[in-house]
Specification:
two-stranded antiparallel ribbon; seven-stranded mixed sheet; alpha/beta; 41% helix; Rossmann fold
Length: 231
């Protein structure tokens, strides 16, 4: 059965969750039942055919928020999970951060709150130890220093990638690290929110995958969705 048994959560935590959900932004943003449905559909669309023999490998979710994607992965017997999220103060407000931290904790989902760019350069995971690296709606936040516009509250029309050599360098490091960590047939899924210059972003991803080698884009909408497989 997918879903939390809130009877197993202590009363103090339950009261904290209820209080945080009263935040006006969270009140609009957070609907657990809907999010579970959406993440289940997302998994079925993009990961259902992944080799089940890889299920002992790690699944990494960049920007796990409240943890539902990794919860769905555990439901599908991919139980070795890890979230990489922003540091406190670098996300969508303190109530969002606090609720995310609590929900992941009660689901027994480990999350490193360090920011993706720090993690790329400092993680100690072994080569070929990961089967899925997922970034759904988080790539712009993870690279927020290279985005013009309000990353958390803005839409495609107001966000714009700052296309410079520094961004290219960080993306090279990101993709190279994903390649190192992924096992053969492992999947890197990048599903961005989109920006006003999304075509330039798409070209960056496509060109870097070709230049780095050892990986192939299996599906893309040529905009913000790229399903990349390690060969």
């Amino acid at each position: 059965m997918l879903g939390l048994n809130f009877d197993n959560i202590d009363k103090q935590t339950s009261r904290k969750i209820a209080k945080l959900k009263d935040d006006p932004y969270l009140n609009k943003k957070y609907n657990r039942d809907l999010r579970i449905q959406q993440k289940m559909k997302y998994f079925n669309n993009h990961f259902i055919n992944i080799d089940k023999g890889l299920n002992k490998k790690k699944v990494i979710d960049i920007g796990p928020a409240f943890g539902e994607f990794l919860e769905v992965c555990k439901f599908h017997n991919f139980g070795n999970v890890l979230g990489i999220d922003a540091k406190s103060g670098d996300c969508m407000g303190n109530p969002y951060y606090e609720l995310s931290e609590i929900m992941c904790k009660v689901q027994n989902i480990p999350v490193e709150y360090c920011g993706l760019l720090w993690w790329i350069h400092n993680n100690k995971l072994k080569n070929d130890s990961v089967c899925i690296i997922n970034s759904q709606g988080s790539i712009e936040q993870a690279f927020t220093k290279y985005i013009n516009g309000d990353n958390h509250r803005g839409g495609q029309s107001v966000l714009k990638w700052i296309m410079n050599d520094e961004l290219k360098y960080e993306f090279i490091k990101f993709i190279e690290e994903c390649k190192r960590l992924l096992c053969s047939k492992g999947v890197l899924m990048i599903y961005g929110n989109g920006t006003s210059n999304v075509s330039k972003y798409n070209n960056l991803i496509v060109n870097l995958i070709e230049d780095i080698g050892g990986m192939k884009i299996k599906y893309t909408d040529c905009k913000r969705l790229h399903r990349i497989v390690k060969l």
